[in-house]
């Protein structure tokens, strides 16, 4: 077990024990990554100020996981669970700095958050099932270590000071100076929470490049089977796959597969964990005007051979919709699929060869039509952002702006649903906060 209050050895002792004046660190953004950065910067003796543009810190934490707040996954495969257009080796280097188990101990032992497992979904939640407790304990851990949190303080610009250090210019015309800065302003998802891409614009104006951003983990818009209105219908064993446009054009249907199997028909299209696992491939293509990938659904996860055998076994006198319902296809979906295949009034024994083939295709490789997405208003996170090549992955310090550290959603990384984005926030916030202090020392 790691006890973080005692992790500082003689090489990395608090700066205040080396110099008379403690270094000052400003954190721009009071979300999960920003508060974590504030905690670890304060832990090393820095004078830490969090500038949060909204009325309270951690607003996005409060709405996470349906207000239950899934704070961590129970296991991680970096290549499978995270998306980046940056170097995979750079991503792995960041994750090598802090294990999932050590992060869990920090939440429990230092933040004081009792955790409970949701074994079937491999997730950690607060035992209280309260996202407010997560936010409040994180804020309390920071303030108990002397962190100042200033709300309604919207940072609109950064400038390097002639004598060293950085100045944060606020929307109200005031400013705050510090030896080093941590930019934790988030992306563009959930704009009602105060996220509008300000951090991207600020560091972009100072020389950083940007992988074009797009809404990730957001529902898709599209037509339901047969044009039916299936809103509210949920399925729990869907095998959803996404094939790149080039592969789909060549008839190659295998591709990226959703990690989860729950699927929801919405009033305007599709959602649920399986859709959110793959929707970034669609939204990225739609936003950038690149060839669109193919999405296909196997509604129950059963093979084409399984369904072929069921149709062969009959009974032949059964209507096709009733046979589908018998084997688990919900009634509204069964009727829609049969209508689209033109077999709504057919008995099983009457199916022509072409109709049978079309029905099997609809059951096991149904092409999901989509024509848009729900955007940042419903996106869990932002895709794209500052490439990892422009930060030191051992410290999160900008290679373009020395003394500025970047963490959280502003970077070109996001995880799938299931606590992975919180893990990214805790992980990068810790690195940025610790090294914001150490960079002043150096």
From TrEMBL:
<dbReference type="Pfam" id="PF03486">
    <property type="entry name" value="HI0933_like"/>
</dbReference>
<feature type="domain" description="RsdA/BaiN/AoA(So)-like insert">
    <location>
        <begin position="214"/>
        <end position="381"/>
    </location>
</feature>
<dbReference type="InterPro" id="IPR036188">
    <property type="entry name" value="FAD/NAD-bd_sf"/>
</dbReference>
<dbReference type="InterPro" id="IPR055178">
    <property type="entry name" value="RsdA/BaiN/AoA(So)-like_dom"/>
</dbReference>
<keyword id="KW-0285">Flavoprotein</keyword>
<dbReference type="InterPro" id="IPR004792">
    <property type="entry name" value="BaiN-like"/>
</dbReference>
<protein>
    <submittedName>
        <fullName>HI0933-like protein</fullName>
    </submittedName>
</protein>
<dbReference type="InterPro" id="IPR023166">
    <property type="entry name" value="BaiN-like_dom_sf"/>
</dbReference>
<dbReference type="Pfam" id="PF22780">
    <property type="entry name" value="HI0933_like_1st"/>
</dbReference>
<dbReference type="InterPro" id="IPR057661">
    <property type="entry name" value="RsdA/BaiN/AoA(So)_Rossmann"/>
</dbReference>
<feature type="domain" description="RsdA/BaiN/AoA(So)-like Rossmann fold-like">
    <location>
        <begin position="24"/>
        <end position="434"/>
    </location>
</feature>
<keyword id="KW-0274">FAD</keyword>
